[in-house]
Design goal:
The chain has eleven helices and eleven strands. By secondary structure, it is an alpha/beta fold. The strands form two sheets. Strands 1, 2, 3, 4, 6, 7, 8, 9 and 11 form a nine-stranded mixed sheet that branches. A two-stranded parallel sheet has the order 5-10.
Length: 304
């Protein structure tokens, strides 16, 4: 599936921006003087930022008086803002760490509340002209981890055009939940090796891979651009059947690097924040998850 309109949400919609004058004047979830509109601040995962923007646009039709202010920066950035009390909702493509949960409780006296709002198959992207079609998680680890043994495509038995045998590793910054997920679930908590090209956003990873024949990168499957890049089938071990990243294979848990997408609040949400989160989990909200290239909740898990 393809994300057909990857846009910067801080410039796409005046009402959907963390830099709006009303937010700067009032802070998280407040109201500007003379403005009766409620504002909900959403911050975090770059994997989810376009989905969050699409939700904000659609919710504006449902509740015109509610402004949803969306910004990215990475899951870690959103979680840090939640701990500080400067955002109402933290989007995260990874789970909060125990230390982060404790920090939030200490700072606010409230337990963070998690809501799973969909799922993602973490895609391993290569240039469209790269002959490789599948890879194992073991091989991914050897490409990315410190001391990893795979540095050239020929190490994987892949014959590349002259001058492009070196593997160019495209990665994310350390505040990214996608970075953390790969480090934990594929690199088995080993450090990334130095020398990768670290991108600020999911979109930028795919764009760089699309323009660099020797590159490999990882990003959410909602950022796939068929005809420019391809997502590899992935197996757990070399020689095992490789699984395509897809909705079905994410739901049946056969794709080895699938993950949940979640939002966090400090304590049980109330008022407009609670209504908004509940709406994202209805059929209407989950339709947007699917349209964004991700995997929606099963019908029995949705809100009515």
């Amino acid at each position: 599936m393809t994300k057909k309109h990857i846009l910067n949400w801080s410039t796409r919609v005046g009402a959907v921006t963390c830099l709006s004058a009303s937010f700067l004047l009032t802070g998280c979830g407040g109201k500007s003087a003379g403005d009766k509109k409620a504002a909900i601040q959403v911050k975090g995962s770059d994997t989810m930022v376009n989905l969050a923007g699409d939700w904000a646009m659609e919710y504006k039709k449902v509740k015109p008086a509610v402004e949803i202010e969306v910004s990215g920066g990475g899951s870690g950035v959103g979680i840090a803002a939640l701990i500080k009390g400067t955002t109402d909702i933290a989007d995260a493509s990874r789970n909060m760490k125990p230390a982060e949960i404790e920090q939030a409780k200490k700072a606010s006296g409230k337990d963070p509340k998690e809501f799973i709002i969909g799922y993602d198959a973490l895609g391993i992207y290569v240039h469209k002209d790269n002959p490789i079609n599948e890879i194992s998680t073991e091989q991914i680890a050897e490409i990315y981890k410190e001391g990893g043994s795979i540095t050239k495509w020929s190490d994987l038995g892949i014959k590349m055009p002259a001058g492009s045998d070196e593997i160019i590793r495209v990665s994310r910054q350390s505040s990214s939940g996608t970075y953390e997920f790969l480090r934990e679930h594929v690199l088995k908590n080993k450090d990334f090796k130095l020398g990768s090209r670290d991108m600020n956003g999911s979109k930028e990873v795919v764009e760089l891979v699309a323009g660099t024949i020797g590159a490999i990168g990882y990003s959410g499957m909602g950022y796939n651009e068929p005809g420019k890049v391809k997502m590899l089938k992935v197996s757990t071990k070399s020689g095992d059947p490789a699984i395509e990243p897809s909705v079905a294979n994410t739901l049946n848990k056969s794709y080895p690097i699938a993950r949940s997408l979640q939002v966090y609040t400090l304590g049980e949400p109330t008022g407009e924040v609670a209504e908004y989160i509940n709406w994202t989990m209805t059929d209407a909200g989950q339709k947007i998850v699917e349209q964004s290239g991700y995997v929606p909740l099963a019908p029995e898990l949705r809100k009515k």
